[in-house]
Design a protein that fits this description.
Layout (H helix, E strand, L loop, with lengths): L1 E5 L20 H21 L7 E5 L10 H13 L8 H12 L10 E4 L7
Parallel strand pairs: 1-2, 2-3
Length: about 120
């Protein structure tokens, strides 16, 4: 089982990335994603005895073609300043981690909340 999560499941929202945009904080989002972090751990603890592996992918922002409008452009500019790799993730970078976790190459990984965030959470 692979849960799709967010860095906001592990951290509070950085409101500075929303400056000069119409995007506002979303407290329920962080609460839900934080719950998913511990749900992943709890389920892995319980279902491990049945050989079921349960992990989550905690991604940072992912670029999409929809990000071309002005509101998103300012957000992307603000976001890039906060990430050591200075960019958003490409969808295939998240997909590659999902593929790894879904295969036997990760057969001894369970209960992990895997960060795919360009270094966002190290700062």
């Amino acid at each position: 089982i692979i849960n799709m999560n967010s860095v906001y499941g592990l951290l509070g929202q950085d409101l500075t990335i929303y400056e000069k945009t119409s995007i506002k904080e979303n407290m329920p989002y962080s609460i839900i994603k934080g719950g998913l972090v511990n749900l992943t751990r709890q389920m892995a603890s319980y279902y491990g005895r049945f050989g079921v592996r349960i992990n989550s992918i905690c991604s940072g922002a992912v670029y999409s073609i929809k990000d071309s409008n002005f509101r998103k452009k300012q957000f992307i500019k603000n976001y890039k300043k906060k990430v050591p790799l200075k960019r958003l993730a490409k969808p295939e970078e998240i997909a590659n981690v999902i593929t790894f976790i879904a295969t036997d190459a990760s057969s001894y990984i369970t209960g992990a909340n895997i960060l795919v965030d360009g270094g966002w959470t190290i700062i």
